[in-house]
Amino acid sequence: MTRSLNVFGLVALTIILMVAGIYFILKEDVPKLYINEIMANNSSCCPDRDGEKDEFDDWVEIYNPGAIAIDIGGMWVSQDKNKPLGYQIPKTNSALTTIQPGGFLLLWADGSPEQGVLHLKFKLDDRGEFIGIFYEDGRKIDGFKFGSQRENISYGRSYDGSKTRQEFSVPTPGKSNQ
Ligand SMILES: [Ca+2]
Ligand SMILES: [Ca+2]
Fold first, then answer.
1. Predicted local confidence at residue 13, as pLDDT
2. Domain 31-168 class?
3. Would you list the DSSP string of 1-33?
4. Which ligand ends up closest to the CA of 106?
5. In what order do the strands lie in the sheet with 34-39?
């Protein structure tokens, strides 16, 4: 009796370890990135020069705090934390969508994806909303809710990757927050 229980236990344990092993092999770690700074009410701060003329569009700054470059092509940016699959960053131009270690990437939230791979299909709501970045399989990487936004004032992490957030009267799109 004891012996058959031991055998059963050993078989069960082996199966559990195998399933766990396969799970960990298949499941890559979600890379570490931050939504570092956003602007939802841009009238003169910082022009998007990818259109025919300068456009003062909303933007979202992503920060890569790690030691390796990360390509965000294939990842999703969403305005709804319960619906991660918002807008998928195209995988077609990794030179543009790769963030260097300690680097920043600016996504224009201008509703003009035809202007390039760094242009989202939606604009930000200056009355406040959620903004987040999600991994290809829908797992959350980072995101936060922001409140009502004043003209040409950005909002983001007090320093790059900080837990605390604040308004910035001098926005730093694509550069270190200060
Ligand atoms: Ca634009
Ligand atoms: Ca910045």
1. 84
2. mainly beta
3. -HHHHHHHHHHHHHHHHHHHHHHHHHSPPPPP-
4. 2
5. 104-109, 58-63, 34-39, 154-157, 165-168
pTM of this structure? 0.87
- Cα(22) to ligand 1 centroid in Å equals 44
Give tens-digit pLDDT for 38-47: 999 999 999 9
Residues measured by CB to lie within 5 Å of ligand 1, the ion? 48, 51, 55, 57, 110, 112, 115
pLDDT tens digits for range 127-137: 999 999 999 99
What local confidence, expressed as pLDDT, does residue 1 receive? 55
Per-domain boundaries in the chain = 1-29, 31-168
The environment of the single-atom ion ligand 2, i.e. residues with CB closer than 5 A, is: 37, 61, 172, 177
Residues 6+ apart with CB under 8 A from 59: 38, 39, 42, 46, 48, 106, 107, 108, 109, 173
Give the Å distance between the CA of 137 and the centre of ligand 1. 28
101: three-class secondary structure by DSSP = coil
Q: What is the pLDDT of residue 34?
A: 98
